[in-house]
Amino acid sequence: MNWLDKAIAFISPSLAYKREAWRKAYEELRNYDAGMNDRLNAGWRVVNSTAEQTDGAYRDIIRARARDLERNSDIQESIIGAFERNVVGTGFKLQAKTNDEELNAKIEKLWKEWCKPRNCDVTFQQSFDEMCRMAVRRTKIDGGIIFIKRYTKDGIIPFSLQIREVDDLDTMQTGRDGKRIINGIEYNEFNRPIAYYFKKYDVNGYYSGESERIEANDVIFLWKKKRPSQIREMSEMAPTITRIRDINSYMEAVSVKERVAACLSVFIRRQSPAPGASFGRQGRSSSNTYEGKTLSPGMIMELNPGDDISVVNPAGQGASAADFVRLQQRLAGSGQGISYEAISRDMSQVNYSSARQGLLEDQKTYQIEQKFLIDHLLTEVYETFLISAVLSGALNIKDFWNKKKEYMQHEWTPPGMKWIDPLKEATANKISLETNQTTLAEIAASSGQDWREIIDQRAKEIEYMKQKGVIGFGETSQK
């Protein structure tokens, strides 16, 4: 209260009370409901802090819970599988864009050979496409994944990749000698990574207490930054793992209830002890015990005299489980940017229009993920691959260092997307091409193909058909 309110309160407390009430009502009219501390928002107490202060305390436990659901939840696996299939699928195709078509063919051929497990992976276990699929999975579950450039003598060129988990960052490293080290990463004054510290393990796989410092130029750390103050990853499943866990718990309860309800059992109640029963101390003791305490199909059990049965029979779970799970799956999928149909494979409630609209929205999500991989992983790996190939002599490009940017020009063709009704899509593509609304390159890229390869292959097929006397498509007989 200001001096005027205090003066009025001294003279007329009732008038001062009315002034205060009207002031609060006016403030409520001009404020946000989301910022009020009334009964509707009771218990909702939050504070503003930096991203690292928010994430650092929960990063490890959220990652551990996301991994637990990855191992044990089919719903979580369906979400991750949808991203693996549609973001990477069978892999990205490289198109070298130098001015020399012969050189382009050599580069693309060498790239295909390098992508084999014995060339691109230091462990000789994964192809490059498999690495990309793992990158999608781990960025979803763990929040990030780390690729280290290793320059070895194995393979067709002296360059391969080593994959490390985010757990391998040595978070026990502290700043020293003027170095700013936070959570295993050394930063400059602009929060740009300078080097990474990785744990060293002994032959038994245990942490040896030592670390390996690797310059940031040789490290590709895949993670998505959502706030300017964020410096480390956070699991992308964080908004949905609680819902997925609730679905699993609910389904387990319904499953147990339905299994019990499906058990046919018979209980025999006797008014007097069974013939031949003893009346000693031993008999009295055994008369109060039962052979089993669980319900199993076809069980026939005799009750003790005077015993009765009380059945707890919660109603409704089995009948409403489908609708409840469908709703929860829909919410879990939307939290990750994809539709219910994409993760459930349930197409019973869609028609062509709604299915196509949902597919288009899903493709936008997948295209964002594909662009992320291209910008942060594929391009970086390809440029290092090309430099290593030139240095090792696998590619002979005389003026490479004078025109390095020109020789590094390239494009990536993501895996193609299939349509619900190919006839309608083909007709639409034909009209768009004839009216100059699209190009053959765009149409081919949408199906994951190179337009040059399509033309070359069709030319070979048409020529072969002519040699065999077969009339090709779109041709008319001259006889």
TrEMBL record:
Domain of life: Bacteria
GO molecular function, one term: structural molecule activity
Pfam family, one: Phage_portal_2
Region (Disordered), start-end ranges: 274-296
GO biological process assignments: virion assembly
InterPro entries in the record: Phage_lambda_portal
Protein name per the record: Phage portal protein
Organism: Parageobacillus toebii
Lineage, opening ranks: Bacteria, Bacillati, Bacillota, Bacilli, Bacillales
